[in-house]
Amino acid sequence: MSDVVIIGGGIIGATIAWNLRRSGRDITLVDRGDFGAATTSRSYAWMNASSKVRLGYPIDYAGFSVRATIDPYLLAGDIPTGWLHPTGNLELVAPEDAARLARDVDTLLHLGYPVVQLDHQQLERRHPRLTLRAGTVGAWYPTEGWIDGRALVTDIVDRLPCETVELVRDDVVGFGVDHGARAIDAVRLRSGRVIAARTVVIAAGAWTADLAALAGIDVPMRARTDAAVPGLVVRLTAPKAGLDHPIMGDGFLVRPHRDGEAVLSGDAHGARLSVAMPPAEVTRAAQRLLGVAAKTIPALRDCNVITAEVGVRALTGDGNPIADRCPGLPNLYVVVTHSGISLAPTIGRLVAREIQSAGREAELEPFRLTRFVPRPHQMAEG
C-alpha cells in the first residue's frame, strides 16, 4: 500500500514528492520513462511571471505567478545546486506594440513585480551588439531567468529518502475504482503490477487528461494536435560573444543553457509543428528560427544546431492551471499547468499541503476543476 502515488516524474510531480518527503507517508513516484525527460526537458524553461500579463491571463493568475517568484529561491536553499539561474530577462517590442508594453509594465509594477521600461536610445546604449529596428522599445525584468528543469528533477530524485519513497519506471494503464467509497484504490501498470493507493496524484503534463480519463474524469485540455500545443525547442552551440540572459524578440526566445550551449524556442515560421514531424523537417524549422533570431542577435549567426525537438505544452482548456481533487473521486488529485517550470516550486508546496491536511489552500482556489462544466466519462469497473 502506498499512501500517495504520484503519476508523472517531471518537475511538478517531483516537487510534490519533495514537499511530501517528511510527511511520514509512503510515496510512489511513477513515470513511464526517465524522470524529468519528457515535457520538463523539452521546455524553454523560462522563469517568469511577466508572460501572464503579456498574454492577457486573468489578474488572479498573474498575481499568483508574481507571488510564486519567491519559491524557486526557497527551494534553492534546500537544493543548492546549479539548477536556478536568475539572470534577468530582456523583452524587445516593435514600435507598434509600445503602448501595449507600457500597459503591461504598469500592471506588473502594481502587482509588485520588478520591471524597468527601456526606450530605444536606452536599449542601444545597454545592448550595442543587438540589431534593433527603428523605434524598438523594451523591458528589463531583473528577477527573471531560467531553470534547468531536468537538473532540478534529477537533484530531487537523488535526494528523496529511499525508505519512504519508491521510484517506479512504468506506464500507467488503468485504475481500480471503489465505487462504494467513491475512491481510487489502485494504480495498474503495464508490467502487470498493481499499486494499492490511498491518494493518487496525476501530474503528467500534456498527457494528464488521457490518464484522468482512465479513471472516468474529464480534465479539459487542448489536444496535443492543437496548433497551440507544439513548440520548437532547439539546443545551440553558444555564441562566441556570450549570452548572459534570456532575450525575447519578434518571433523567438533565446537564453543561455549549460556550458557552451544556448536554447532557442519559438514557432516554426512557415511549417506546422507536430510531434509526428520527421526529424529532418524539425531541423529545417530550427534553422529558420535561428535565422529569424540572428537578425536581432547577430552573434547567433555563428551558432550551430545541436538538437531540435518539438515539445508539447500542457495547455488546459482556458490556459490557466488546474490543481484540484476530482469531483466524485476526492482521493484523486489532478495538477497541470503550462507554466510548470516557473510554478512548480509553489504548486508543489501547496498541493503537498492540501494532501497532508485534506484541506484547501486559498491560493489555489482560482484553479479548481469546478470552474469547468463537469463532463465525466463512464467510470471503469474496479
Structural features, described:
This protein has 382 residues and is of the alpha+beta class. The chain has two domains: 2-42 and 150-223 and 317-371, FAD/NAD(P)-binding domain (3-Layer(bba) Sandwich); 86-145 and 225-312, D-Amino Acid Oxidase, Chain A, domain 2. The chain contains ten helices and 19 strands. The strands form three sheets. Strands 1, 2, 9, 10, 11, 12, 18 and 19 form an eight-stranded mixed β-sheet that branches. Strands 6-7-5-14-15-16-13-17 form an eight-stranded mixed β-sheet, sandwiched between helices. Strands 3-8-4 form a three-stranded antiparallel β-sheet, covered by helices on one side. Strand 15 (252-256) and strand 16 form a beta hairpin. The radius of gyration is 21 Å and the shape is globular.
Please describe the structure with a list of short key phrases separated by commas or semicolons:
single chain; alpha+beta; FAD/NAD(P)-binding domain; D-Amino Acid Oxidase, Chain A, domain 2; 2 domains; eight-stranded mixed β-sheet; 10 helices; 27% helix; 27% strand
In short, what is this structure?
This protein has 382 residues and is α+β, with helices and mostly antiparallel strands. Helix content is 27%, strand content 27%.
User: Main β-sheet, in a few words?
Assistant: 8 strands, mixed
* Spatial gap, N to C terminus: 16 Å
**Radius of gyration, CA atoms, in whole angstroms:** 21 Å
Which spans have pLDDT < 50 for at least 5 consecutive residues?
378-382
Question: What is the count of helical runs?
Answer: 10
